[in-house]
Write a structure and sequence with these properties.
Layout (H helix, E strand, L loop, with lengths): L8 H5 L5 H15 L25 E2 L18 H5 L5 E6 L2 E7 L1 H5 L3 E4 L8 H5 L10 H8 L5 E5 L9 E7 L4 E3 L2 E6 L4 E10 L6 E10 L4 E9 L5 E10 L4 E8 L4 E10 L5 E10 L4 E10 L5 E10 L4 E10 L7 E10 L5 E10 L5 E9 L3 H8 L5 H17 L8 H25 L1
Helix pairs in contact: 2-6, 7-8, 8-9
């Protein structure tokens, strides 16, 4: 695949932002010219729909249409923010650029920083931290992202500061055949604590590309809770990278919920670089219609006495498909590390399918690790137990699927959002039940 004429140096140069960001974009564009686009032959893209991807379908959002600070066209201050409950700060991002941000003044007085890195001022903080975690491995999509990056959310918490309520970042993408490039940078200082919610959405019938990057810098002794919720319209392609670096004795609780999109891919990676670091990665995903939800994970241990635990649970119905491919890597320095990986999938119809590929790479000799995966239909004994007690078949299926997801839903870091996410899952189940009822009536 070659870059199309829409993604040119002039188009990159015309985007808003300070000179350092313009220079960064142009350097990424140069590197993009020399890199191969992915194919299904690569292991990390195996089972994906990358062969269908055509960059020529899309174009960057024109500068005159990119959101400006104060732009009220971006949703998020209403139902999306309300569902997140009490929050310490909020950022609204439209087509990859921050159009609104607000922060509790008491936190601002403690040095907490919440802004758009394209307009954060001249302190150099955003320039010095942007891309530090992302740069661990470049590919065509991260370079395309960097080459057309108009702005993004910065969440910076100084050493020792505790942010009790979540900080909410709301990303909205629109415009038919546009490509947008959301970016969230979280920097948690030594001994700090923060919860961040990233919520992604797009118009229901808009055909667009969302190429997103999330960077999580977790300082020594810091405690970061992060939740990503993807609820795009049915024609959106979402290619996301979430990469974290954990310092000594730090903790990251990272969760993802994926319900929308046509093809939605998340690459979630955690590098445990400091002794005693701990990482938990969890996900809930549910595909219906012709959706494909694609997850690639890395638990990368490069220090002693580190611990990671991963639990991903998914369901597919209709002709939807899911892919989970995860690697646990224990490098030579990871003595006395513990690493656990579990992926379980429900296949709710004959036309649906799920792939699960767990992997271990162990280079240390004093470790504890395990992996497990399962793909299959609803347990017949569970269904029989409920139906034998008078529960209708559709209700039995709903209860079993919700119970399947409950242990992940119960641990999401933004608990006030759990009810709306459960409702979204129920809507997908009832969509299937409604189809079966229609079929029975026609019969």
């Amino acid at each position: 695949m070659t870059r199309t004429t829409a993604f040119t140096a002039d188009a990159s140069r015309d985007l808003p932002g300070p000179p350092w960001l313009e220079q960064r974009r142009l350097e990424a564009l140069e590197r993009l010219d020399g890199i191969a686009w992915p194919t299904p032959a690569e292991e990390i893209w195996r089972y994906s729909r990358i062969a269908e991807f055509d960059l020529a379908r899309y174009r960057p959002v024109p500068p005159e249409e990119i959101g400006e600070p104060g732009d009220e066209r971006a949703p998020g201050g209403g139902p999306w923010a309300a569902e997140a409950g009490a929050h310490a700060g909020m950022v609204v991002v439209r087509d990859g650029r921050v159009v609104h941000h607000e922060l509790d003044p008491s936190l601002e007085a403690k040095g907490v920083h919440l802004c758009d890195f394209a307009t954060c001022g001249t302190s150099g903080f955003a320039r010095d931290n942007l891309g530090v975690v992302e740069a661990a491995g470049e590919d065509a999509f991260t370079l395309l992202h960097d080459a057309f990056l108009a702005g993004g959310a910065v969440v910076a918490v100084p050493d020792g500061v505790v942010v009790a309520d979540p900080i909410v970042v709301l990303h909205w993408s629109e415009g038919d055949r546009y490509a947008t490039f959301p970016h969230t940078l979280v920097v948690a200082g030594e001994g700090s604590e923060v919860t961040v919610l990233d919520r992604f959405g797009s118009a229901p019938d808009t055909d667009n590309l969302v190429d997103a990057v999330v960077e999580l810098q977790v300082g020594d002794g810091a405690n970061v809770r992060y939740l990503s919720v993807q609820e795009h319209g049915s024609r959106t392609w979402h290619i996301g990278l979430q990469r974290a670096r954990l310092g000594r004795d730090s903790t990251l609780r990272s969760s993802a919920v994926a319900l929308g999109g046509d093809y939605a891919r998340l690459r979630s990676e955690a590098l445990l670089a400091g002794e005693g670091a701990e990482s938990d990665q969890m996900a809930v995903y549910f595909g219906d219609g012709t959706q494909m939800l694609d997850f690639r994970t890395l638990q990368d241990h490069d220090a002693p006495r580190t611990r990671s635990d991963l639990l991903f649970k998914g369901a597919v119905e209709d002709t939807a498909r899911s892919v989970y491919s995860g690697l646990v890597r224990l490098r030579p320095a990871a003595q006395k590390a513990q690493a656990y990986q579990t992926n379980r999938n429900l296949v709710l119809g004959e036309g649906a399918g799920a792939e699960s590929i767990p992997n271990l790479q162990i280079e240390a000799d004093d470790v504890k690790c395990s992996h497990a995966s399962a793909v299959g239909p609803i347990d017949a004994d569970q269904r029989y137990y409920l139906e034998s007690r008078g529960v209708p078949p559709e209700e039995a299926e709903r209860l079993i699927v919700l119970g399947f997801f409950d242990d992940v839903f119960g641990r999401l870091p933004v608990t006030s959002l759990t009810a709306s996410l459960r409702r979204a899952v129920v809507d997908k189940i009832e969509h299937r039940s409604g189809q079966r009822s229609d079929q029975r009536r026609r019969a």
